[in-house]
Design goal:
With about 280 residues, this protein is an alpha+beta fold. Helix content is about 25%, strand content about 35%. The termini are far apart.
Length: about 280
């Protein structure tokens, strides 16, 4: 009788092995799938639209092209991550850290528009498609009108940049002013040395006309006198006289060039002047 028992036990082990091999395996976890980008319209009078987000997946929210994010307020900042980047932009990245959680988010733009969204994590749903990218468009006329106006809020990053640029511009202006003052002071200190009183004329004729002094610097020629009537001023080149341009104020002629020879004349009165040969 013992041999049949041994056979029965062996068959039992074989059946057990077959049963174990044919038992169902653990089902693979479902994978979240991103939806195609979509546009949602946000209106103050309507219920905030729902955005489907996936566990540990990033959903990108984009404001209208004319706007930038000024501030973000969220109901749950522990189990949800909100990232607007390090510079002011129209983008906000949203990522949930807890399955089947929900929260709301309020976005204030630099144009003063407000957008409220309901966020829902969907890893427990039958439909595992989540929103990967959402474009927001305002539904209210007032909000649309504000898009074409100037921003009412300046993001902190841009404000800091403007302050830095203003400080740099002020410092540059101060440096330029200081350089100009230094140049002017240097010019004033050196200017007397650039004056040359090297003209000759008939002093008696000059006194009759009112001429008192003639001098020059590196760019101009000056004639000063007390004239009853303003004499005409001529330059003489190659023994040919010609009227020249000058400025006259308070008895001072300012000629925008160096004159070698010339004369002043009123009617028949005439005073010739010449630069000395040594100075030429």
């Amino acid at each position: 009788m013992k041999p049949p028992i041994l056979i029965f036990v062996a068959c039992g082990l074989a059946l057990t092995t077959v049963a174990s091999a044919s038992s169902p395996t653990t089902p693979e976890p479902k994978h979240l799938q991103p939806n195609a980008p979509r546009t949602i319209t946000v209106s103050e009078a309507d219920t905030p639209p729902v955005v489907r987000v996936g566990l540990l997946q990033s959903t990108l929210i984009l404001l209208p092209a004319e706007e930038k994010v000024a501030n973000v307020f969220a109901g749950d900042t522990v189990d949800w991550v909100f990232d607007g980047g390090h510079v002011a932009s129209r983008f906000i990245s949203i990522k949930p850290k807890l399955a089947n959680s929900t929260t709301d988010v309020h976005i204030v733009s630099d144009h003063g528009n407000e957008y409220t969204l309901q966020l829902r994590e969907i890893s427990g749903d039958e439909d595992l498609h989540f929103d990967s990218k959402i474009f927001i468009t305002p539904g209210d006329k007032a909000a649309k009108d504000r898009l074409v106006e100037m921003p009412v809020f300046v993001p902190v990053a841009e404000l800091d940049k403007v302050k830095q640029e203003a400080a740099a511009a002020k410092a540059a202006e101060a440096a330029t002013l200081k350089a100009e003052q230094t140049k002017e002071e240097s010019y004033r200190s050196q200017y007397p040395g650039s004056l040359h009183f090297d003209y000759t004329w008939d002093k008696s004729k000059g006194k009759g006309l009112g001429l008192q002094a003639i001098w020059r610097d590196d760019k101009f020629t000056y004639l000063r006198g007390q004239f009853q009537e303003t004499p005409a001023l001529y330059e003489v080149k190659d023994k040919k006289p010609s009227l020249i341009n000058f400025d006259f104020a308070n008895g001072l002629y300012t000629v925008p060039k160096e004159l070698d020879n010339g004369y002043l004349a009123i009617g028949k009165q005439k005073v010739e002047f010449h630069r000395t040969q040594e100075a030429r």
